[in-house]
Amino acid sequence: MFTNIDWLFFDIGSTLVNERRAYEHRFRELAQAAGVSFEKVYETALGFYRQNQKGDLETAKLLGVSLTPWHTEDEILYQEAVDCLSRLHRNYRIGVIANQPPGTAERLKGYGILKYIALVVASGEEGVEKPDKRIFEIALQKSRCLPQNTVMIGDRIDNDILPANLLGMHTIWIKQGLGRYWKFQNGRERPEAQINVLSEIVTLL
After folding, report:
1. Distance of alpha carbon 56 from alpha carbon 49, whole angstroms
2. CA neighbor of 14 nearest in space, from 6, 23, 5
3. CB neighbours of residue 205 within 10 Å
4. What are the structural domain ranges in the chain?
5. Parallel, antiparallel, or unpaired for β 76-77 and 170-174?
6. Residue 41 pLDDT grade (very low, low, confident, very high; cuts 50, 70, 90)
7. Angle, vertex CA 82, rays to CA 78 and CA 84, nearest 5
8. Mean of the pLDDT values across residues 11-36?
9. DSSP structure class, residue 68
């Protein structure tokens, strides 16, 4: 399935980094602002995610409150990330394509994984964000690699898989985080492979 691959591109949130606590923090803040229970906010958001919508944003709109700031301090590296990247690094060049604020490389360094990553393309520094295909084209240009020789690995069908598919990149959907509830609407959204945890990538490739 995956032949002649030179570069692997990873998303960050819910791909390399576990965002569960950050989402729970946001849901608690939304609940407090709206005067409802955490459980109500969580279940409402989950319902939106199951309809291929951004659950936190749509829940905030429904409750008539503002979406609260994102708490990056609540993010933690997935347990398998270091071992996965260190093993893949032996055979592939690794990059990041992510909707992240400026300073992404420093945060990855803090996690201890920047040494495995040859290229970081973040929306906060490039001025364009996924699902806009231009951020993928920037990564391809900087890596000097053809789409057919790359794999995009991410948790979001709309942000990661669909635009990469449209550019001719190979794609792997990692079903972590709230993106795992996505329901396919057409063939263009379908990844070439689906996995549940990072450790499966090593076997797959």
Report:
1. 9
2. 23
3. 18
4. 7-18+76-204, 20-72
5. unpaired
6. very high
7. 95
8. 98
9. P
Q: What average pLDDT does range 130-140 have in this prediction?
A: 98
Bridge-based pairing state of the strands 17-18 and 170-174: unpaired
Which residues are CB-contacts of 125 (< 8 A; sequence separation ≥ 6)? 102, 104
Here the tokens at position 179 are 């993106």
Q: What residues contact residue 105 under an 8 Å CB cut-off, 6+ apart? A: 114, 120, 122
Please state which CATH number belongs to domain 7-18+76-204.
3.40.50.1000
Q: Omega of the bond prior to 102 within 30 degrees of 0, cis? A: no
Using pLDDT thresholds of 50, 70 and 90, give the confidence band for residue 1. confident
Write out the DSSP string of 106-166: HHHHHHT-GGG-SEEEEHHHHS--TTSHHHHHHHHHHHT--GGGEEEEES-IIIIIHHHHH
**C-alpha count within 13 angstroms, C-beta hemisphere, residue 34:** 24
Report, as an integer, the average pLDDT of 116-144. Answer: 97
- Is the bond preceding 191 in cis, omega lying within 30 degrees of 0? no
Q: Residue holding tokens 């995956």?
A: 2
List, in order, residues 6 or more apart from 31 with CB less than 8 Å away.
37, 38, 40, 41
Structure tokens at 5: 């691959």
pTM of the model: 0.95
Structure tokens at 191: 């990844």
| Structure tokens given for 4 | 């002649």
Q: Which residues are bridge partners to 121 per DSSP?
A: 97
